[in-house]
Amino acid sequence: MAQLKVIQTSDLHNHIDLQKAGRLRNLRVEHEALLVDCGDAIWAGNVFVKPGPEPAMRRMNEAGYQAMALGNREYFFRAFGLMMKTAEARFPVLCANLLPKTGDLGHIKRWTVLDTPQGDKVGLFGLTPLMIAPNSWAESFSNMRFISHTRAAREGVAALREHCDWLVCLSHIGLEGDRAIAAEFGDIDLILGGHSHTDMDEMATVNGVTISHVGAYGRHAGLITSDGEQRPSGFSRELLPLE
């Protein structure tokens, strides 16, 4: 195992232009780090699908993003709209707690495994807010269904932990939700979170799991680095200005 390095953004809300994309691309190469996002990157809202491509997706491709969590802005209650919002992504969009009633969700995946530049394998799964309560009347209008964050995390850990050197949750459920997941699943190394637009001066540690939130609107990214080359490992973080 090698030292893990991850660059994190969240809640960009379309605040990623060519200059920020170039800055992120250079940082990814300079630090030999993975580049990931924690959701709500695009312009469109929860129940609206923008005609044509989302500019943020193109900029994220140019920056070299390798995975993102599905945020509530990327969500739509029908699968075609859900996939249209991120159709141009050249990287997996992750959401472990949203399942199709039939078929699959194309490039929307529950989890993925990435190889670091140093040769380690990093398992990542995503969590998004419960936009439709499981088994509610509203669920009948959707061709997808939500499951609980706890069940999704349990299934993600079971699918990934033994096959990966590092296990990372890309979360868009807010800081309190992240704390609850960490308290229950100590096998996760790192939770990179969004949704609550929280600027954390320092990362939190719950049940041995490190939690990082870096705020919103692309003001800065977080460079998270493992303190050791084996797990369990602590992590340190440097905030990198993007403006």
Protein described:
It is a single chain. The chain is an alpha/beta fold. It has one domain: Metallo-dependent phosphatases (Purple Acid Phosphatase, chain A, domain 2, 4-Layer Sandwich), CATH 3.60.21. 21% of the residues lie in helices and 27% in strands. The chain contains five helices and 15 strands. The protein has helices at 18-31, 55-63, 79-85, 149-160, 175-184, and strands at 5-9, 34-37, 67-69, 93-94, 98-100, 108-109, 111-115, 121-127, 144-146, 166-171, 190-193, 204-206, 209-213, 220-226, 235-241. A seven-stranded mixed β-sheet has the order 6-4-3-2-1-14-15, with helices on one face. The chain is globular and about 50 Å long.
Give the gist of this structure.
By secondary structure, the chain is of the alpha/beta class. The protein has helices spanning 18-31, 55-63, 79-85, 149-160, 175-184; strands at residues 5-9, 34-37, 67-69, 93-94, 98-100, 108-109, 111-115, 121-127, 144-146, 166-171, 190-193, 204-206, 209-213, 220-226, 235-241. Helix content is 21%, strand content 27%.
Describe the protein's topology:
Blueprint: E1 5-9, H1 18-31, E2 34-37, H2 55-63, E3 67-69, H3 79-85, E4 93-94, E5 98-100, E6 108-109, E7 111-115, E8 121-127, E9 144-146, H4 149-160, E10 166-171, H5 175-184, E11 190-193, E12 204-206, E13 209-213, E14 220-226, E15 235-241
Parallel strand pairs: 1-2, 2-3, 3-4, 4-6, 8-10, 10-11, 11-13
Antiparallel strand pairs: 1-14, 5-9, 7-8, 12-13, 14-15
